[in-house]
Amino acid sequence: MELFRLTIAEALRLLLNKEISNQELLKAVFDRIKNIDSKINAYVTITEEEAFNRLNKVSKTSGIPIAIKDNLCTKGIKTTCSSKILGNFIPPYESTVTQKLINSEYIFTGKTNLDEFAMGSSTENSGFFPTKNPWDTSRVPGGSSGGSAAAVASGMCIAALGSDTGGSIRQPAAFCGVVGLKPTYGRVSRFGLIAFASSLDQIGPITKNVEDCAILMNILSGHDINDSTCANIDVPDYTANLKNGVKGLTIGIPKEYFIEGIDKETLDAVKKAINILSEMGAEVIPISLPHTEYSIAVYYILATSEASSNLARFDGVKYGLRIDGKNLLDMYLNTKAAGFGKEVKRRILLGTYSLSSGYYDAYYKKAQAVRTLIRKDFADAFKKVDVIITPTTPTPAFKIGEKVADPLKMYLNDIFTTPVNLAGIPAISIPCGFSKEGLPIGLQIIGRDFDEETLLRTSYTFEHATEHHKRIPSI
Amino acid sequence: MKTNMKTYETVIGLEIHAQLSTKTKIFCSCPTQFGSVPNTQTCPICIGMPGVLPVLNKKVVEFVIKAGLATNCTISKHSRFARKNYFYPDLPKGYQISQFDLPLCQRGSLTVGDKIININRIHIEEDAGKNIHDSSDIHSLVDLNRAGVPLMEIVTEPDIASPLEAGAFMRKLRAILRYLEICDGNMEEGSLRCDANISLRPIGQKELGVKAEVKNLNSFRYVEKALEYEIERQTKILTDGGRIIQETRLFNTQSGKTISMRSKEESHDYRYFPEPDLVPIEVSDQWINEIRETITELPDQKTARFVRDYKLPSYDADLLSLEKYTADWFEEAVRLGGDSKQVSNWMMGELMRLLNEKNLSLDKSPLKPNLLVDMLKLVTDGTISGKIAKTVFEDMFNTGKSASEIVKEKGLVQISDLGELDTVIDEIIKSNSKEYERYKAGETKLLGFFVGLVMKATKGKANPKLLNSTLQKKLST
Predict the structure, then answer these.
(1) Does CATH number 3.90.1300.10 belong to domain A3-248+384-470?
(2) Which stretch of DSSP H or E encloses residue A265?
(3) What are phi and psi of B476, to 5 degrees?
(4) Is A144 a catalytic residue?
(5) pLDDT digits (tens, 9 = 90+) for A156-179
(6) Domains of chain B by residue range
(7) What is the ipTM of this complex?
(8) Would you kindly state where each structural domain of chain A is located, as residue ranges?
(9) Which of B49, B269, B276 faces A198 most closely, judged by CB atoms?
């Protein structure tokens, strides 16, 4: 048995039955990392010593190895955001989500690579190195949580945490053939997540199957006094209703998401998935989300505006990189020039422009108004349907280097995921097939505010009617 | 033709920053104490570490609502925070969390003398830290103890017509904030500081002139002096046919002049946008009412009551009401039986003089209301003269002893014994026979001469009434 292939649920069962020890499990995962991470580059920091130390302090029936995206602050463990500007930053505090995992006796395997400050769709924008797709190392794993998704897909952890601002959990989950959930905005505390775009960022699980996703959601969700935007709403047991099927469920298919330019294999896989759910008792109806076409524009104005402000603090004064200069301005310029990568600089410039006096009304303000319309599109749709199904991405994983020269082409990869963040609602990506080349295809299921339960139930039903999640990359 | 100075009128608007006296900072639980060792009152939140989030201190909202209610503002049911973006080492996040388009309080007013000064808005914001420059070192240091200390900014309409009026507005506002116990008003420590916008326009012109903004005035006197200087400067430019340029200026306390800091073109674009890390502030009517009920009598109401109930001149009532502690001191003395006008006279005269001399505030004075009242009784019943009372008062102030104790110790009891006084008077008449004859011949103004001699001989202890009547009788015989 390859222990690193286990899911959380399987591992917990085996630990409980004393069929394996948590030492064996952790060792298997670190061995796996040692064997293959040189080919994948999923991890920025590997915390083997800390992991085994911590394992001594947890119960023998727990100690699941989990990887943490490197934009989540971990006390005493270097947290870089895959940026040179934070290359030496060690937080003196723990994020709420990692604290919750510690409380539940999960063991951190390390910090995973991302597009610098979570800005990107391929992990090629990492300030250190790109991560590769375990299904085909000439391809990107998606991004920005590419390190986490690749680590889960290749067994370099049992599960992982990611963050999703415009698709950064779902898109890499789709590219790597794993499950990724972006919770409702306010479901999971953002305290300790290094902000990219505060009104869009959410932390969520990346797992090998839907049950694991539900298990982690039980741990991560809930109110936090340290995050005012985190909702004080009861959290259900997400594992309780997984097996209740889809009979009576209404699924909406938005016509704006099934347009020209989408890869045919992706389209076929998604249509097939819809048919399966229909056969299992769900009602499928066509819907319209008329403002979809503005999503990318709105997203790139709002996200960059917030980012331009959120990243102002990296100025060389207090922590992180500092490149001295002959005066204050010089130090600012030297530090930011050396510390930030090209894409980060591009987005800071875009956002600064959108917020500038004389442009604010035409860009930021207008984008906020359209955001309200996009949100309303979904609210109207959810009067008629329980979930909405779309492809997660227009194509399977693309080649490394294929889109770096053309940022707009890269941005279009988020076309199906960004509207969800703008609306604040939850969505999940699950494997729904493979291309002829053997690349995974993702199915996106979108739900109502705080209705992750229905997403998980629908996903679980589909997963158990198919075999896609059982396929693993040959690496 | 030379234009006369008086053809211009002054238009002033103030932006006042008041530090709220909450125990903890606005978005974290660090203490707000002044004067601590640099960077000891900080945490990851107020030093702007990555990933941290602000959580609003509810007391701050309560305090600002209080200020709004006390200055007749409309309290916004729905307001929100905004980010003000600029780079400076003492601003750890690279933005200040403030309020912009939806402030907590709007459209208020304050009455200063007979004039109503309108308030445009009061909003909440966080303070920045402090840069420390040492000329002996090429490095500058940053102290973030003050970063995240809650402030409110009070913005007036351009309704103020003179530096004196500006000073009076500041004093009135400070009194109110201190009454509400939401700001200690300590200007030296920067708890209350003011930016003043000032422009001139020809009398009769509606349109406002081009303004200058004078930054960071941290005393009433500086506000007045800086504005006086600006009037002089701007008047000279205008009368010489020049044009005022819109700019930010700094007041040099040494020279008493303002100097240009930056012009409008160089001013920051703060790129305000709604703060996404905080939810909007929703204020219910119930909460506003609860806060309203905690507001006790304010200076204006107290002044009116003092005039009405204690028959004080409004000048006295105004001065006594400026500080709550002073007003309470006064009322305590009256409650203990002191005559209101007498108490007021002693407080505004001798007491103020001694406090100023010793640079003490009233609450630090060893002289308490009961001591003053006891002394006033000794004056009324004739035990001591009004003149002796001044000496006794100063002794009470210095020692905290009671008037009767001091009178006893120093033998200051008034000579009201006729026999004793007779002997002294007789002796004086005898040794000043020339003056005695002149008096008898009708030169009655010499009475004062004799009174003086008796007082001198008795060290001022002679009961003046008794002395007068006895002396007159004896001189006429």
Answers:
(1) yes
(2) helix A264-279
(3) -85, -10
(4) yes
(5) 999 999 999 999 999 999 999 999
(6) 5-290, 301-401, 418-476
(7) 0.96
(8) 3-248+384-470, 293-369
(9) B276
